[in-house]
# Entry
Amino acid sequence: MTAQPASPLRLLVVDDHEVVRQGLVSLLDRREGLQVVGEAGTVAEAVEQAHRLEPDIVIMDVRLPDGSGVEACRDIRAERPSTRVIMLTSYPDEEAVLAAIVAGASGYLLKQIRARDLVAAIETVGRGESLLDPAVTERVLERVRRIATGGQNEELAQLTPQEQKILMLVAEGKTNKEIAGEVFLSDKTVKNYVSSILAKLNLERRAQVAAFVAKHHITPPG
# Structure
């Protein structure tokens, strides 16, 4: 009796740049064993499409206009743990990699990846394995080693000094605009920092930050 061919992996492609998104859709949809079932350009669209289409794998840009792809990854995985997420970005940023791993991402790749390597990575994740781009693996391992050998609370140890400073300001109840004024960053950059902090600390809302700080007896850095 002939074995039935395996069902194609159902993909959702998320990127706010339409040209990049269309290129990914065109590349992936013609590959045997892969089927693009939807696309999105924002965090809100990504979460809604993942809920509606139930893809096997989401190819997720890290930076989106209404927030972080890490945020979207966390929301999608919380609702549907069987959906796997591969983060795709232009920069080998170990902060974002750690946040993505904490949020449940199965992979983290650079956009410079060759087409056949991207397909191979998707197939790897489709088999239930995890992966990291070699360009970021060593940085992340080094960071993890520092966390493992440090005396800090493990979650807090993932935060940079800047993130720890912003954490304390969030705990004081300050808005993104107020924080931006204190740390000399844009509102949007602060929003991205807050999303990253919440992901690393496994918190869902900024309202939970004050309780986290009190529970762990955290004092301002410096």
